[in-house]
Write a structure and sequence with these properties.
This is Flp/Fap pilin component. Helix content is 69%, strand content 0%. It is an all-alpha fold. It has one domain. The mean pLDDT is 80.
């Protein structure tokens, strides 16, 4: 048992897999946070753009519903 534990302690072949797993989890977390922030900013910009639009008066060629 002592020989097995010494071999297991000195064997680093599984360390690379763990490092890739940690890097993947970190990338997923960073990507999720970035997409969440981007979605919030996009929503705010669309609300601002909708508020800046003025409705077209009746009798003109184009009519727009103001349902923003």
């Amino acid at each position: 048992m002592r020989i097995f534990m010494k071999y297991f302690y000195n064997n680093e072949s599984g360390a690379t897999l763990v490092e890739y797993g940690v890097a993947l989890i970190l990338a997923i977390i960073v990507g999720g946070v970035a997409l969440s922030n981007l979605a919030g900013e996009t929503s705010e910009n669309l609300v601002d753009a909708c508020g800046a639009m003025t409705p077209v008066e009746a009798g003109t060629l184009i009519t727009v519903e103001t349902g923003c």
